Amino acid sequence: MADLTNLTNLADVDANDLGLRRWTLQFYSRSEAEAARVEKAFRVRNALRYETALRLTTVAFLLVNLVLIAYDVRRFGGDVTSRQLKSALIIRLAILMPLCIGAISFSYTRWYKSKTELLLLPLTLIGASMVAYSVMGDSPGYGTMALFIVYMYSFSPLSIWPSSFSIVALIVVYGISLDATKSSWGGRVGNIDSSVAPGDPSVVMLNILGVLSAFTVIVGFIGHELERSLKQAFLDELRLKLQTASLQQEKEFATSLLDSMLPQQIISQLQAGRTMIADSIPEVTVLFCELDVETSAYPAATVVSILNIIFSEFDALVDERYVRKIETVACVWLGVSSPFMAPEDMPQHARHVAELALGMAAVMPFARARITAETGVGGDEIGFRIGLNSGPVAAGIVGIKNPR
Questions:
Q1: Are 325 and 315 in contact, with CB atoms under 8 Å apart?
Q2: Tens digit of each residue's pLDDT (9 = 90 or more) over 139-179
Q3: Three-state secondary structure readout of 8-53
């Protein structure tokens, strides 16, 4: 199964902007850079998908190529001085074999996934060697090239368009070569196509090129549809992955927001479906801190800035494992600690709240200095009162909006 890790680089892609063009098989988006990243990720996926097929078929072709050396010796009379036999051996041993080994070796390099298009050159040269071998003999045909066409469209990771360009170019070269060498094989056309009278090589040549062209169109269409389905599946998977990641972020945000409002024990009960929560807690310590601010003396924005500066400093002192901020009402900051929050530290809830109160008092000079610097209001004019009390309480969730 293809590796999915390449999708992690697309975490910031907008799935709603992505699409696939029906015939050109190009990814598109409002951002060209984004579309290019998706295309690159698909190439990596596709290279991994075809990795085994490319290696196995190329190895099989290499082995068949070696076995057919004996066929060439028999075909060309076994005379090692024969020009045709020498050419066949050069093609098989000096050209096809190194090219096959090179293609297989390239699939093991780090460039295979990121630079798959580099395979176009060795694979095209393999096809050119097959053209040369077909033309060199006395009985050219379309079988060898047909196998190469299937190989390019079905077993290589190359996209449909570069593969088609290579195949069409090779068919054109094959036609030119057949026309240039028809004097050598033209008198033996009866051995090539029994339906064609000897002495009519042009018809044979057109038959060969016609069959190859039709075969290219048929197999190419199948290859096009295969690539389209693979790209569409990749796009659907990417969209699903991005949507899942977005949902996970939303869930984490909602959980964080809920956690800032309620203790984890209450959240667990709500998530379990409990709609009415009312508990009697025998021992808690409550802290009230009231600011002495003449709110009517300042603009609303200034009042909000003053409260935000002071309460933000208070919030930074809270360790929610032991003390939880419940809410702020006007100029009052409310927090609570109880064994319910830290069962392993049951007797210490009053100490935790007292330590928080001391911290609030200690941070007030810094908060006053910030108020003076940021709002122009004299921070020394702002006083505060802190009250603590321990005892039993009844606690529950009341109402359905903004629960506390």
A1: yes
A2: 777 888 999 999 999 999 999 999 999 999 999 999 999 88
A3: HHHCCCCHHHCEECCCCCCEECCCHHHHHHHHHHHHHHHHHHHHHH
Evaluate whether 65 touches 30 at the Cβ level (below 8 Å).
no
Domains of the chain, earliest start first: 5-247 (no CATH), 264-396 (3.30.70.1230)
Query: CA 293, CA 369: separation in Å to the nearest integer?
Result: 15
Residue that has been written with the tokens 């379990």 in this structure: 272
What are 364-376's pLDDT values in tens digits? 999 899 988 888 8
Within 299-343, residue ranges assigned H as helices are 300-317
Q: Which tokens in the block code for residue 188?
A: 């033996």
pTM given for the model: 0.64
Residue 155 DSSP symbol: S
Which residues are paired to 385 by β-bridges?
290
- Name the helix (H) or strand (E) containing 167: helix 160-185
Q: What are phi and psi of 383, to 5 degrees?
A: -105, 180
